[in-house]
Amino acid sequence: MQVRFHGAAGEVTGSCHEVEANGHRLLLDCGMIQGSIDDEHRNFEPFPFDIEGLSAVVLSHAHIDHCGRLPVLVARGYKGPIWTQLATADLLKIMLEDAASLAEMDAERDNKYRRDGHAHHRPLFTRGDVGKVLKLVRPIGYGKPTEILPGVTVTLRDAGHILGSASVELRAREGERERVLVFSGDLGPTGTPILRDAQPVPHADLLLLESTYGGRAHRDREATLTEIAEVLDTAWDAGGNVLIPAFAVGRSQELLYWFARHWDDWKMSRWKIFLDSPMATKVVEVYDGHESLFDEDAQQVWRGRPHPFRLPNLNFTASTEESMAINKHKGGAIIIAGSGMCNGGRIRHHLRQNLGRKEAHVMFVGYQAHGTLGRRLVDGAREVKMFGEVIQVKAQLHTVGGLSAHADQPGLVDWYRQIPNRPPVVLVHGEDDAREALAKVLRSDLKADASLSRPGMVVEV
After folding, report:
1. Number of other residues whose CB lies within 10 A of the CB of residue 113
2. Is the peptide bond before 71 cis (omega within 30 degrees of 0)?
3. Residue 447 backbone dihedrals phi, psi, to 5 degrees
4. What gap in Å lies between CA 158 and CA 368, rounded to an integer?
5. Helices H / strands E in the chain, number of each
6. pTM
7. Labelling 87: which of 111, 164, 295, 312 has CA 20 to 30 A away?
8. Which among 204, 222, 127 is positioned nearest to 448, based on CA atoms?
9. Do 337 and 350 touch, CB atoms closer than 8 A?
10. How many CB atoms lie within 10 A of CB 388?
11. How far is the C-alpha of 35 from the C-alpha of 343, rounded, in Å?
């Protein structure tokens, strides 16, 4: 068995790792590259491997930076199965159809305004391509070893990151010889609301470990919740709105969970709450269908009142007209909208309306990749260009790191520590400063053989 790295090898998006096992080739993830315009143009480039020679794809979870190029892969000739967890299979349809719709609209808009009148822009993929992907999906449950190729078995374990997220164990057997590769996927922090904690793995001959926050420790969750309460109080007293850029899967549902759990002490009934994302609304329905995957605390909250997804002042805005109508609220509104990094989606329109208002507050609750509008704002930009105009940033900005869906450095180290044989580890899905910091701790504290993946690098298992 060997691994060749193609994506998320020095960056946080574009997860894609090629595995050769028992004479077969397969992919772990096939994610979209996100960030600057130049970064996103890389999604159109040819894949650095032979598509026709692939026999399987194993998908760790439904975030677009892990699944977003599956339609491209299929459109270019892949016809094999796509193995993933049951809830991920349900979310995949929503995520990919939304991405296809956005890509089609972007291409149509770009072509409309070309001066030469020719349609040169094409979408990365279409809704028709997504339909072909969905026909190849093979859902499996957690903890059920499944032979996906002759002599190659996959077992998925709960990664605690988003609903359906999985760590992937690949076992390749040839005669009496067996090798075990483990891909952590994206790991959630211990105590993440709604979801169960990431499960440990019993053994690995090689571990591919995510390192998004490999260089830092998250703020204590209770301190984070206190900060959210303070932001809400301050914004209410100032008469402003609270904007929360949040991805449709994971963070949006978690925020509603906390609003329900702190309904009284955060005085949530005074707010108008908008979940301004048709995709997030569909995701809520998927969560409702997979309550068996929730942890015990979440199941108690779901049985109580108010129900997180049925708050009496919660508005699901599906249409563009409903989204635009939110603009009439100059204060007293909490607006949750995607995308989480502000590079697209409805949040950009709400930022356009609110960034120039000093009484408004913007609360960042997730990772902001290099090159994104969210990253520029977090890094202190005092003006940004949106929709062809320069907007002065006067709103109050808050980075709430304690709600991250990714484990921090102590959490990643602890998850690795639970693997009894302490296997060699290759760090993926992280920028270099975070990976180097994590590698240093793994080497010094646990004597681990830790290295950093690079595009094209090959490692034997």
Report:
1. 7
2. no
3. 55, 35
4. 25
5. 14, 22
6. 0.87
7. 312
8. 204
9. yes
10. 5
11. 8
